[in-house]
Amino acid sequence: MTGTPTRTTPLRGRRVLISGAGVAGPALALRLLHHGADVTVVEAAPELRGGGFAVDFRGPVHLGVLERMGVLEELRALRTGGSAMRCVDADGREVFTLPAEFTGGELEVLRRDLSRVLHERTAGRAEYVFGDTVTYLAETPHGMHVDFARSPSRTVDLVVGADGLHSGTRAVAFGEEARFVRHLGHCLAGWSLPNDGGWTRTSEQFNVPGRMVSAAADRATQAGRACSSCSARRRSPTTGTTRMRTGPWSRRRSTGCRGAPRNCSPRWTARGTSTSTRSAASRCPGGPVGGSPCSATPPGG
Questions:
Q1: I need a surface site. Which of 89, 162, 287, 294 has the fewest CB within 10 A?
Q2: Is the pLDDT of residue 161 over 70?
Q3: Are strands 158-161 and 15-19 parallel, antiparallel or unpaired?
Q4: What is the pLDDT of residues 130-155, one digit of tens each?
């Protein structure tokens, strides 16, 4: 799957609305535009989101798709080069290190760079509407009627929900996501924090059965970036949601924190931004979709 395919326009005149301007939305927009569709992308955030983890691409299928989309060389120029992962014990002593060649794949880029590249490739031809969401959908003889939180209503031929694990578009179309989600019993959170632990690009990870925390320096800003996960199988009898278990582990010296254990204390939550989710399997009319909100308040959440 290499080279540039012959351009065809089987979708010319088709109006497509994509909800979500992260990675999947602009990637789909790029291919739909290639085939002649009129594309609008609506995004709840006021601008492109800059957070997220690194994205790895491995093997001929991944790289072939990027080449066919015409973004491979641009992403190669933005590659992080990968970073090693140093696993430590509770006292910060090295247990083993995985090299960057193993952890980063053949091509690793930051999610924010991937999102930006795809947006730039489509922004001149697709309409982007930031700071808005889909609030109502109805199928009519003329197409899909769509209402928005802020923008005027419109009718399109196809609506695609690409707005993440907790898709609001899915909820509008099919109902509350709790009807379609089966939780797999894990929570994951990532957040930024001041780099007063002296972290480098080599991520430092502390892991015990059912619990993990890691930290590293951001490639561009050198600020701290942290991630934690834990098994979370306790379910609320009233809400049906799963809550993250907390306890002494969250205050232990971990992730290779240098100096006093305070560097791994809950004061991490004082500043910065965070994202969190839970692993989940879902079922939905028309096929599998994303996950469900995490009711936990993870470190930094």
A1: 287
A2: yes
A3: parallel
A4: 999 999 999 999 999 999 999 999 99
Q: In what order do the strands lie in the sheet with 143-148?
A: 134-140, 143-148, 154-156
Residues 6+ apart with CB under 8 A from 154: 17, 40, 145, 146
Q: Which residue has the tokens 């880029």?
A: 109
Select from 201, 223, 228, 210 the least CA-distant residue to 272.
223
Homologous superfamily (CATH) for 15-81+107-163: FAD/NAD(P)-binding domain (3.50.50.60)
239 membership: H or E segment, kind and range: none
pLDDT in tens, 43-89: 999 999 987 778 999 999 999 999 999 999 999 999 888 788 999 98
| pLDDT for 275 beyond 70 | no
Q: How far apart are alpha carbons 201 and 224 in whole angstroms?
A: 9
Question: How far is the C-alpha of 278 from the C-alpha of 301, rounded, in Å?
Answer: 13
For the residues 161-171, what does the mean pLDDT come to? 92
The strand pair at 211-217 and 127-130 is best described as unpaired
SS3 50: coil
The CA distance from 29 to 43, in Å, is: 13
Q: What ranges do the domains of the chain cover?
A: 15-81+107-163, 178-282
> In terms of pLDDT, which residue wins out, 102 or 156?
156
**One-letter amino acid for residue 32 of the chain:** L
